[in-house]
Amino acid sequence: MPKYSDDFTTQEMIVVAGSRSLPDNKVIFAGTGLPMVAITLAQLTHGPGIVPVFEAGAVGPELSRGLPLSVGDSRTTYRANYLLGLNSAFELTQRGYADIGFIGGAEIDPYGNLNSTMLGDFPDGYQRPKTRLPGSGGASDMACSCERTIIIMVHEPRRFREKISYITSPGYLDGSPNARWRAGLVGQGPQRVITTKAILGFDDETKRMKLVATLPGETVQSVQDATGFELIIPDDVYEFEPPTVEEIRLIREVIDPQGYFVKKKIKE
Amino acid sequence: MIEWTGLSPDEARQFLANKDKSKRDKRMSLKEAVQKFVKDGDNIGVAGFVNGRQPIAIVHEIIRQGRKDLILSFQSAGLAIEYLAGAMALDESKNSIKRLELAYWAHEAFGISPLFRYLTENGKIEVEDWSNYNMSARFKAGSMGLPFIPCRSPMGSDMVQRNRSVIIDCPFTGRPIMLLPASHPNVAIVHVQEADIYGNCRIQGPTYTCPEIAMASAHTIVTCERLIEHNEMTRYPNRISIPFFAVDAVIEVPFGAYPGNCHGLYYFDEKHISEFRGACEKFRKGDTAPLKEYYDQYIFGVETFAEFIDKLPFEQLQYVQKIEPGIRLEAGFTVLGS
Known about the structure:
The complex is a heterodimer of chains A (about 270) and B (about 350). Chain A is of the alpha/beta class and about 270 residues long. Chain A has one domain: 3-Layer(aba) Sandwich (Glutaconate Coenzyme A-transferase). Helix content of chain A is about 25%, strand content about 20%. In chain A, helix 1 packs across helix 2 and helix 2 crosses helix 7 (about 245-255). By secondary structure, chain B is an alpha/beta fold. Chain B has one domain: Glutaconate Coenzyme A-transferase (3-Layer(aba) Sandwich). Helix content of chain B is about 35%, strand content about 20%. In chain B, strands 1, 2, 4, 6, 10, 11, 12 and 13 form an eight-stranded mixed beta sheet that branches.
């Protein structure tokens, strides 16, 4: 049997990339949707020691009762090591117990600031937005107070914009030196952006987004074309290892067989 | 000084000073509880989290009676708010929401909220965005009897531009810190697994922000899956999540969080959530008939929540109980064993 899968969707690829970016034995605060799928895949492959935290209160549960459909549902609490409520989950994050926050958003800018609140004019159009999105939930708290954040997003020009409509979850803010520290934030900010086309990071000096690796089937040019701002392209960009047959099997057969979060096709 | 929605901290303190805190039988009908404790213009603290343990039965009763100009305060919600929004969408003269103080309104795996889009994109409601921790901490400040609580997030976010938070330099460290005003709703609506007749509540699974919302509010209506013996409740005092004197009305309503998830008892009913959410989505796109039919059949066409449950196929209810992965309710120390 070949090691690598030659039949996978972009969403399956993003889950694999997300999973591989999670180090073992770290406390990972996971948002709803793709982060939950990726964290489960990581636990089943290289990261059995990952400690998941969910904002509704569960700390360190076993994710063996089916894919949670909500970060507060019964499947997030099985054999948890601690279970209270939202205040306790965010308090321990503020204290420094959460190594990595794993979140998504609808729009992102070059400094890793995320929007999940509204499209349209802010502040003038705030009370009557063009499109209203669900809102922060706990994502902004994770972006501020987890030690690092990993962002997972669909890669499209309309989602990667030089200026986004609204900053819900802070990244490096305006990119100026020590912007996060000066704003009063305790976490160090986004480390990686995992997308349907690439793995991205941030330049140490300018804090602008840089390309780290291209996903299978993508090139530096195709990633830049799908990005609504100019990416920093370092010399050491590499091609990301394709998903293995085993990773794809786990997603399809074990983790999300009904396709709740890993859709066959990404909705426009 | 800010403009307080619900009670100001001083009003909330005074209200409790004058309140009857005796340990008395608080059972009554849901109809009576809503008549007594939910008024037009109230700030309602909505408990649960997204579609987990939301007070759906209480919301259906509010809609049947009709309440206007409500302020709804919550961290993350789904169905409870969608139901109130649907009632407003169908007839604003009978039910209406004036303002939301929230962190998130959608349905996670089941999709976005169609009526959040409908109401905001048409300028029909006022919105104040916060984070989940912000709303939870605001209720916590209320429950602690403090006018505000400091918080480290989300400074740098656009939320702080349009909500009532204040960022100051911490007097002890000199670094910026965000202060959140307490939230004291007029009434909290809460669904739990177990309560006794005095209002003591035992929550199973995540407590979400239910204890804080109940303790912060002037009044609290509790529905429970099971009324249990007071002696059984007090066998484990540190498992009591909400104490009796924070509760004004207790009503046994099995399936009171349906079609959402109630830890230990039933998982999401995807089929029914899709039916309702689908009708809301059609309404947003201009086809109002399915939503009207839904309300006529399941809310206005019945007198009690039990009659709504009675309209559902038994097999469907059996299924959501069967697939619930949480630990089944037991009389004893329910967090142990599986």
